[in-house]
Specification:
The protein has about 180 residues and is an alpha+beta fold. It folds into two domains: about 110 residues, no CATH class; about 60 residues, no CATH class. It has seven helices and five strands. A three-stranded antiparallel β-sheet has the order 1-4-5. A two-stranded antiparallel sheet has the order 2-3. Helix 1 crosses helix 2 and helix 2 packs across helix 4. The structure holds zinc ion. The site of zinc ion (ZN) has 8 residues, from loops.
Length: about 180
């Protein structure tokens, strides 16, 4: 059983991988940004949901993208297999560790490093970096169009504060007396 740290002292050591381009490093850092540990359930609480992370241009698995981007170590804990300092393969590995389960380090999980190596293979990395940049650009274009549409609406609303010409609308807004007048 690895020695347990009180949850409030729990800190992950995140080391960015120099071979990873910075947009990929950012995904890895975001993947491992821990808010804290729930004192009741002992479960880790993450700043962002996995689905909110832009990892898909890098890998089909967020933890693979994160593994290519950074190395996350949980100081004070050791690998259940090789006894080295515990490097984490995924968020689940941290949850399992906190639940008292035996967890193996990255070096003992060949698949994670294999997937990370695939992402970092130079030609694939170039392609993925390009795709990630395009995805970001597209996102910015969509955002820009949204803002333009919003400001266009505001201009119209300013210019025509009462846009309704609907007779019924006007009637229902008028006082009862005025309405009676209108029917006369
Ligand atoms: Zn190990």
């Amino acid at each position: 059983m690895p020695k347990a740290l009180p949850p409030s002292d729990l800190k992950l050591l995140i080391e960015p991988n120099d071979a990873a381009p910075s947009p990929l490093q950012e995904v890895g850092i975001a993947y491992w940004t821990l808010l804290g540990v729930d004192p009741e359930t002992n479960e880790p609480k993450w700043e962002q949901r996995v689905s909110a992370l832009p990892y898909k241009t890098w890998s089909s698995g967020a933890h693979y993208a994160a593994a290519a981007a950074v190395t996350a170590t949980l100081p004070g804990y050791s690998c259940a297999t090789c006894d080295a300092e515990l490097t984490l393969t995924s968020r689940q590995a941290l949850a399992d560790t906190l639940a008292g389960k035996a967890v193996a380090c990255r070096a003992c999980h060949k698949r994670v490093d294999e997937q990370a190596a695939k992402i970092l293979e130079p030609r694939s990395l170039e392609r993925r970096t390009q795709r990630a940049a395009e995805a970001l650009k597209q996102e910015a274009t969509v955002q820009e169009a949204r803002e333009l549409e919003q400001s266009r609406r505001e201009v119209i609303a300013d210019r025509y504060p009462v846009a309704t010409n609907d007779q019924e609308d006007l009637l229902s807004n008028a006082s009862l007396l005025a309405k009676l007048g209108a029917w006369r």
